[in-house]
Amino acid sequence: MSGGPDRFIDAAFRHGPGIEHSSALRRRDYLDRIVAGGFPEAVRRAPRRRAAFFDSYLSTLIERDVLELASIERRGDLFKLLSLLAGRAGSLLVPAALAGQSGIPRTTLVRYLQLLSAVFLIKTIPAWASGQTRRAVGTPKLAFVDTGIACHLIGQDAVRLGEPGGAGGAMLENFAVMELARQLTWSGERGRLYHYRTKDQIEVDAVIETPDGRVIAAEVKAGATVCTEDLAGLRNLASHLGDNGGGVLPGYQGILVRDGYHQGYGRRTSALHAWCGARDAARAAGAEGPGPGRPRPNPF
Question: Pick the residue with more confidence: 57 or 279?
Fold first, then answer.
C-alpha cells in the first residue's frame, strides 16, 4: 500500500521482544487509508468518484459473480445484508442474530454469507483456543476484505470515522486484521489467523499460530493513549500459553497496535505503534510501561 515491502509478520516472529517500529503517519492518515481501501481504482480517485466506483463494483459483483454461483431469490436482501454486515465488522458472526435483524431466513442467510465469502467481500476469522476441539466450536468474527467498501456501505468518510460514536475503532481493527491476513499469503512464516475471546468477553483481535505452535497476538486500539486495561487480553492469552512456572513460552509475542499521536506508553508518540513482548505486557500491569530504550534498526 505504501510502495514498500510488508514483512511485519516475519519480523515479529524473528525479533520477538526486540522489535520496535513506529510510523510518521498521523491518525487522519490512517483513517484516509481505511476509507480508500486497497483497490487501486479507488485509491487514486477523489471521494465522490470513489463512491461511484464502489457502487459499480458491488453491483457488478452481485449481478455477475454471485448470480453465477447460485440462484438468489431476492437480490435486494443481499445488498441489505451487506450493509448490515458492514456495520458489524469486527463483531462476532452469529447467523441467528443476523437473521433476526435482517428478516432473512437463517438457512438463506447462511448461504448468502458463504457466497459473499466466496467472492472475497467478507472473511470469517475463526476463534482460537488451546485445543483444536475448542477451536472448532468457537464463534468466528466477521471482517470485510476491503475497508473502503465497508466504509462506503455504512456511509462514513474519514471525518465521520474520527468522530465520537464513529466506526473508527471497528474499522481500524478490521484494517489491521486484514493486513495481517494479506501478509500471511506471502510471509516466510506459515501461520493461521484467529481471534481470541473468553467466556468473560476478554478479547484479542488477532492471533497468528504457526504449525509448530509459535504464537503472535495483536491487539488494535483506536486511541491516542494506552492504559493497562488495554493489555488485559494479551495478558490473559499469555497465561494460557504459560509454562508451569507461570512464565510465557518463548514462542509467544504479544503486540499492541495503537492509533494516536499523543503521549501513550513512556515516550512513544507514533501514530501507529507496534509494541511487542509478552513479558513487557506482564510488567506493564500497574505501570506506565517501558520507554522505547535505545534506537533499534527497522526490522521491516
Answer: 57
Distance (Å, whole) CA 277 – CA 255: 7
Measured between its terminal Cα atoms, the distance across the chain in Å is 14
- Calculate the CA 1 to chain-centre distance: 16
pLDDT digits (tens, 9 = 90+) for 96-146: 999 999 999 999 899 899 989 999 999 999 999 876 545 545 899 999 999
pLDDT, average across residues 1-5: 59
Element (H, E) at 197: strand 192-197
Are the C-beta atoms of residues 276 and 253 closer than 8 Å to each other? yes
**Cα 262 from chain centre:** 22
Condensed to tens digits (0 to 9), the pLDDT of residues 20-46 reads: 666 777 888 889 999 999 999 999 999
Task: Please state the pTM of the whole predicted model.
Answer: 0.79
The residues near 161 (Cβ < 8 Å, ≥ 6 apart) are 31, 34, 35, 151, 167, 168, 171
Helix axes 27-36, 147-154, angle to 10 degrees: 90
d(CA 84, CA 289) in angstroms, rounded, equals 39
Of 135, 114, 285, the C-alpha closest to 209 is 135
The three-state secondary structure class of 161 is helix
Count CA within 13 A, CB hemisphere, residue 160. Answer: 8
Q: Report, in angstroms and rounded to the nearest whole number, the Rg of the chain calculated over CA atoms.
A: 20
Half-sphere exposure of 32 (CA within 13 A, CB side): 11
Residue located via cell numbers 473468553: 198
